[in-house]
């Protein structure tokens, strides 16, 4: 049965691994937020070839499994002389993969701003950049928050894939403890619980951010 | 006050949306200070006329000018668009109020009205706010300066929309079906604001409207547009009491009996 004393004894090890999971998740998420911007701009470029190529690359990255991308970068690239640490590989793959998703989220946010808002900016002589800065961006952010938040939680839950390229994150440590001590129940249960708790916390934070951002000008 | 020097001139303007011709070689001259009401069935091209003047739509042929500045210059067959600087200059002279208000939802009434003066005219916040407060008072919104649009009624939002258009001190004001999206009981408060504007003699106003009673009282000229051309063009009394064209009579009978 579930051994609480054993569970308690492995908690410190798991806590250290949690830090790794969080570092990878949070840094990949912020990088993904950044990477999404140029991808969106390239995607909307006036040059047809640029926008088509970007769309192709985005589709390619979104339509191949993260696990395959991790393996490719970590195990196949060294053959071409490119060698990255496990964590660096993980952050690179996650940030680019989710950066592609973010560019689509930005696109949806941009399209959610009604055409009338653009019209009135022309009528008021606002410049293109001022229109984006003062009118379009503030209205885009609101619908982006929950969508981006979903991807944050989603990405967080996918980090156990990094165990496969020997990043010492929560899943890796849990499996290792299980193999060493021949007890999987406690480490895997704890690992799942930690993911659950942090996912719930993140979802709460996202809802709070959404509320705080729109609280003054949105009617609930 | 109406002097007969035209401030707005459309000549042979043709506008197409795909295969559909919305304006057919349309000619229209509007003198400085005129209050012009434009009426007609939906899809007749009357809103397009305003949107062209605001450079929200382009034209396929003909000329459009404001004062001596051409937005498009051409003939019945072709046209050339003005350069960016000229277009920007003309835009500054024109204000527009929209059917759907189009207030900035993330800004208060005061911020909505002062945004363009601050960002475009580079006015100081104090100066822009003072002017915005003044304008909001004139449209009867002095107690709602800090309210966000979502918390205002349609009529209140549209009055803010009018104040916002006036904040740039336009010579020409375009009113595009400004009461069409309002509940009937809110139409009056917006019309009374427009009545007040009409008293300003030097402001040229083009108003696309379905409010025939108001058009008659407010305008000093009424144009009936149908099928992309001006069918009837007359002073209000003549337009409503003794229209010459049969299509105008049919239209008036339809809207007044409705």
List the helices and strands and how they pair.
The complex is a heterodimer of chains A (220) and B (258).
Chain A: H1 4-43, H2 48-62, H3 66-76, H4 86-111, H5 115-123, H6 128-158, H7 170-181, H8 185-214
Chain B: E1 6-17, E2 20-31, E3 35-39, H1 46-53, E4 61-66, E5 69-74, E6 79-81, H2 84-93, E7 94-97, H3 109-119, H4 125-138, H5 154-166, E8 172-176, H6 184-198, E9 204-208, H7 212-218, E10 221-226, E11 229-234, H8 236-241, H9 246-257
Parallel strand pairs in B: 3-9, 3-10, 7-8, 8-9
Antiparallel strand pairs in B: 1-2, 1-4, 4-5, 5-6, 10-11
Helix pairs in contact in B: 3-4, 3-5, 4-5, 5-6
Overall description:
The complex is a heterodimer of chains A (220) and B (258). Chain A is mostly helical. Chain A has helices at 4-43, 48-62, 66-76, 86-111, 115-123, 128-158, 170-181, 185-214. Chain B has 258 residues and is an alpha/beta fold. Chain B is built from 9 helices and 11 strands. Chain B has helices spanning 46-53, 84-93, 109-119, 125-138, 154-166, 184-198, 212-218, 236-241, 246-257, and strands spanning 6-17, 20-31, 35-39, 61-66, 69-74, 79-81, 94-97, 172-176, 204-208, 221-226, 229-234. A 6-stranded mixed β-sheet of chain B has the order 7-8-9-3-10-11, sandwiched between helices. The model of chain B has no long low-confidence stretch (mean pLDDT 94). The chains are: A mainly alpha (220), B alpha/beta (258). Chain A binds chain B through residues 114, 116-117, 119-120, 122-127, 130, 134-135, 138-139, 216-219, and chain B through 54-56, 88, 91-92, 94-96, 98, 100, 102, 104-107, 115-116, 119-120, 148-151, 164-165, 168.
Could you list some keywords that capture this structure?
A: 220 residues, mainly alpha, MetI-like fold, 8 helices, 79% helix, flat, B: 258 residues, alpha/beta, Rossmann fold, five-stranded antiparallel sheet, globular
């Amino acid at each position: 049965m579930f051994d609480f004393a054993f569970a308690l004894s492995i908690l410190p090890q798991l806590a250290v691994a949690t830090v790794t999971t969080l570092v990878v998740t949070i840094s990949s998420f912020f990088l993904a937020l950044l990477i999404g911007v140029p991808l969106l701009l390239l995607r909307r470029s006036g040059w047809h070839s640029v926008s088509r190529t970007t769309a192709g690359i985005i589709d390619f990255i979104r339509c191949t499994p993260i696990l395959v991308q991790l393996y490719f970068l970590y195990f196949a690239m060294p053959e071409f002389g490119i060698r990255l640490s496990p964590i660096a590989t993980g952050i690179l793959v996650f940030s680019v993969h989710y950066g592609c998703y973010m560019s689509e989220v930005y696109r949806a946010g941009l399209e959610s701003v009604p055409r009338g808002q653009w019209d009135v900016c022309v009528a008021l002589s606002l410049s293109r950049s001022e229109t984006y800065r003062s009118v379009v961006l503030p209205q885009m952010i609101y619908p982006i928050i929950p969508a981006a938040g979903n991807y944050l939680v989603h990405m967080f839950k996918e980090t156990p894939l990094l165990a496969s390229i020997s990043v010492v994150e929560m899943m890796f440590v849990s499996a290792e403890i299980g193999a060493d001590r021949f007890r999987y129940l406690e480490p895997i249960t704890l690992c799942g619980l930690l993911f659950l708790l942090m996912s719930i916390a993140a979802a709460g934070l996202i809802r709070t951010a959404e509320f705080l951002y729109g609280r003054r000008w949105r009617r609930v | 006050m109406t002097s007969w020097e035209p401030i707005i001139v459309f000549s042979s303007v043709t506008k197409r949306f795909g295969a559909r011709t919305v304006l057919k070689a349309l000619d229209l001259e509007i003198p400085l200070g005129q209050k012009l009401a434009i009426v007609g069935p939906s899809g007749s091209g009357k809103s397009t006329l305003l949107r062209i003047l605001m450079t929200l739509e382009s034209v396929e042929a003909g000329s459009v000018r404001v004062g001596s500045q051409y937005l498009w210059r051409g003939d019945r067959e072709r046209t050339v668009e003005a350069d960016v600087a000229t277009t920007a200059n003309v835009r500054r002279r024109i204000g527009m109020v929209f059917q759907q208000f189009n207030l900035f939802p993330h800004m208060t009434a005061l911020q909505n009205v002062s945004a363009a003066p601050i960002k475009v005219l580079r006015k100081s916040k104090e100066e822009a706010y003072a002017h915005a407060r003044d304008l909001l008072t004139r449209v009867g919104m002095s107690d709602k300066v800090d309210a966000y649009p979502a918390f205002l009624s349609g009529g209140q939002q549209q009055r803010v929309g009018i104040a916002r258009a006036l904040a740039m001190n336009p010579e020409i004001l375009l009113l595009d079906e400004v009461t069409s999206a309002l509940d009937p009981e809110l139409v009056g408060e917006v019309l009374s604001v427009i009545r007040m504007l009409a008293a300003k003699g030097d402001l040229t106003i083009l108003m696309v409207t379905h409010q025939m009673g108001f058009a008659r009282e407010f305008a000093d000229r009424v144009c009936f547009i149908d099928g992309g051309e001006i069918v009837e063009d007359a002073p209000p009394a003549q337009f409503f009491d003794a229209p010459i064209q049969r299509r105008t009579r049919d239209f008036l009978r339809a809207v007044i009996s409705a």
